[in-house]
Design a protein that fits this description.
The protein has 312 residues and is an alpha/beta fold. It folds into two domains: 219 residues, 3-Layer(aba) Sandwich (Rossmann fold); 87 residues, 2-Layer Sandwich (Alpha-Beta Plaits), CATH 3.30.70.980. The chain is 34% helix and 30% strand. The chain contains eleven helices and 14 strands. Helix 3 packs across helix 4. The two termini are 39 Å apart.
C-alpha cells in the first residue's frame, strides 16, 4: 500500500532525511518512531504531497506522490502535527466544509460527517465553536476531518498529543480497530504509543532508518534479548563476579551494585539461549548463595535508546 525508495530531502544545506526506504502492507499499522527532529514529519509531508523530495520516490496505493499527487490525496486522510482547524467555525460546519474540499459525494456527506463524529466521540460538541474547545477535543476534530473521505491510508502525526489519559486510550483503540480496514502510519516519539498500537515499527534517527521490523523482531535482533537480575547473599567483589559470570556463553554483565549486604547484578543475554541454569551452576561453583533470580525481556524503550543514543 505504501512504498518508499531511497527518499532524500534537503532544506537548503540541511539534510532532513536521506536514503529512507520502507514498505507498509495493506491493513498494517506502522509506527514511525524517532526523537524530535529525526525526520518523521518530513516523511509524512512527502507521502501526503505537501513536499517534494530532493530525490527518491514514494507511492501510495500504487500512485506516485510526485506525478499523481491528486490521486494520492483522494486515498489518504492526514492529521498534521499542527492541527488544520478554523477556530471561528463550529465543529459541524468545519467538517462539512472539509468534506466539500475532499470531494465527498453530496449524497454521502451527512452520513460521513456523522460517522466521523461518532468514531472520534465528538457528537456532544458538534455545535460548539472550535476555538473554545479544549486541546483534546481539537485533536479529535482533527482526526475526524482525516476520516471524512473514508481513506484507504491514514497518516497521523503525533495523534494523541494533548489528550488526557482516558482520551489517549480511546484514540489508541480507535486506531487499533482500523487494522485490516485501513493502512495507518502513526508517528510518535512516545514509546507506549507505538508499542500499544502498531504491529510494525520503523525507527528513524537523524534522517536515517536505523531499524525496521515487527516489535518482536526488533527485540529478538537486538543484542541482549533478555536481562536476568541476580541477587547474591553478601557484599561480593565485583571483579570476581564479573569474571566468573562472563564465562557463560552469550552473556555479559550489564550492571552491578550492592544493596546493604546483597550483591545485585544484571546478566544480559544475547540471542535466544536460556542461561539461567548456567548462572545457577556458576553461583554453586563459587559458593555464592542466590537469593533471587528474575528474567525480564528487553523492551521497546531499551531498543529505541540503544539505536538512537549517541556518545557526546
Amino acid at each position: 500500500m505504501i512504498e518508499v525508495k531511497k527518499l532524500t530531502k534537503f532544506y537548503g544545506p540541511t539534510r532532513a532525511v536521506e536514503n529512507v526506504s520502507f514498505t507498509v502492507e495493506k491493513g498494517e499499522i506502522l509506527g514511525l518512531l524517532g526523537p524530535n527532529g529525526a525526520g518523521k514529519t518530513t516523511i509524512m509531508r512527502i507521502l501526503t504531497g505537501y513536499f517534494q523530495p530532493t530525490s527518491g520516490s514514494a507511492k501510495v496505493a500504487g500512485y506516485d506522490v510526485i506525478e499523481e499527487t491528486m490521486e494520492v490525496k483522494k486515498r489518504i486522510g492526514y492529521l498534521q502535527e499542527v492541527l488544520p482547524l478554523y477556530h471561528e467555525m463550529t465543529v459541524s460546519s468545519y467538517l462539512e466544509f472539509v468534506s466539500e474540499l475532499k470531494g465527498v459525494p453530496k449524497a454521502d456527506k451527512k452520513k460521513q460527517i456523522q460517522k466521523a463524529l461518532e468514531l472520534t466521540k465528538i457528537n456532544d460538541v458538534s455545535k460548539r465553536i472550535i476555538g473554545r474547545l479544549s486541546r483534546g477535543y481539537k485533536q479529535r476534530v482533527g482526526l475526524a476531518q482525516a476520516l471524512l473521505n473514508e481513506p484507504e491510508v491514514l497518516i497521523l502525526d503525533e495523534p494523541t498529543i494533548g489528550l488526557d489519559p482516558k482520551q489517549i486510550i480511546e484514540i489508541r483503540e480507535l486506531i487499533k480497530n482500523m487494522a485490516g480496514q485501513r493502512t495507518v502510519i502513526l508517528s510518535s516519539h512516545i514509546l507506549p504509543e507505538v508499542s500499544m498500537t502498531c504491529n510494525k515499527v520503523v525507527i528513524i534517527d537523524a534522517g536515517h532508518i536505523v531499524a525496521e521490523d515487527t516489535q518482536e523482531g526488533l527485540l529478538q535482533k537486538s543484542e541482549g534479548g533478555d536481562r536476568i537480575e541476580v541477587k547474591l547473599k553478601g557484599r561480593l567483589a565485583g571483579e570476581e563476579i564479573k569474571t566468573e559470570f562472563e564465562k557463560i556463553k552469550n552473556s555479559r554483565i550489564g550492571s552491578l551494585k550492592h544493596e546493604g549486604n546483597i550483591t545485585v547484578l544484571e546478566v544480559v543475554r544475547s540471542g535466544s539461549t536460556d542461561i539461567r541454569e548456567d548462572i545457577f551452576k556458576t553461583a554453586v561453583r563459587n559458593n555464592w548463595v542466590i537469593l533471587e533470580m528474575t528474567s525480564a525481556a528487553l523492551n521497546l524503550e531499551q531498543v529505541f535508546l540503544k539505536l538512537t543514543t549517541r556518545e557526546e
